[in-house]
Amino acid sequence: MTSTLVSAEQDFEYNSPDQHKLTPKELKEIAHVKKNRTAGDWVILVLLVIGALIMMFPFIVLLLNAFKTSADYNTSGPLAWPKELSFTGLQTFWERVNFPQKVWNSIWTSGLVAVLAVVLSMFNAFALGIGRVKGRKWIVLLIMLANMLPQEAMLYPLYTMFKGMGLYNNPWAIVIIFTVIQSAFGTYLLSSVFGTFPKSILEAATIDGASRWRIFKDVVFPISKPTLSVLLVFFFIWTWNEYMIPLAFLVDNSSQTVPIAISSLTGDRLMDVTTTASASLISIVPTLIFFLIFQRTLSRGITAGAVK
Hints:
By secondary structure, this protein is mainly α. Helices cover 76% and strands 0% of the residues. It contains 15 helices and no strands. The longest helix is centred in the middle third of the chain and has 32 residues, at 99-130.
């Protein structure tokens, strides 16, 4: 009885919240240490600021020229401040390419590809990482090698295949192509993640009588949500920025995406710099809004594996 009381008292002493409180003197010392930055800290901070300015420089030039007139650009050059704000470039691009339609085409294509690629990656990775199919290492290696193929090498085979299927000049061809391409990367990534999944959890679910589908739906999927959300954001942005395959497969103006619309502004002998700058600037806005909406989801997904 006495030993039990002693152990209980010791437990109370070690786990008491008072033990974790800091005195005013200790708080001052911590604040003093934080204020006393070394010369190395300031050098790193300056280098980071310089790096950020270098990375922002193209965007600043784009912003300066998007609101200039052609005469102002020809007179003052690309780095001068606009003499007056002009929305002529934005208006010209908006009316020439029917920008709202191009935005909808890009949103529809990128959103559908992102969702379908994540779903396909989940099922493939579950079979390879948890199902442990025979020859899984060779399958993952083959998927990785296929993911490294340049798009130029795939253009003619894809053109021949979709031409025979009657899907050439059809947005569904782009959805199918990029769903497979993006899911190849997703499968490679998720299969390595699922391969390290705790076997004890899976064995406990099997003992409780859970089927494969139940394990996937109630165990694997909830734990994998952060990783899946990161893939969803990446797949959307990657598909939005794709240019070569959509240019080759989407001939009709009504089905083209935003990057193709921007390329239509340049010709062999003439290029309106201010209109092109306005087009590039306005094309960034939808992806920027999408990123800001899912920024918290993205940061949580990236740091989920780093926090115990």
